[in-house]
Amino acid sequence: MTTATLNGSCPECETGLTVPPVVPGETLSCPECMLTLRVEDVTDGRLSLRMVAVQLRDWGQ
Ligand SMILES: [Zn+2]
């Protein structure tokens, strides 16, 4: 039986996150602080997340 979801917490605001299965290297967005988080590792259904600097797009303003 595989784990249907993975759990982790935002390193910035410590909001608990439950996400569908991801693999290291994928990125998620924290719903609370909107930071982009990269999955560093997945261990036993637990995510290790690291905030990444987001390159803001130039929207042509
Ligand atoms: Zn957060």
UniProtKB/TrEMBL annotation:
Name under which the protein is recorded: Lysine biosynthesis protein LysW
Lineage per the UniProt record: Bacteria, Bacillati, Actinomycetota, Actinomycetes, Kitasatosporales
Source organism of this protein record: Streptomyces nitrosporeus
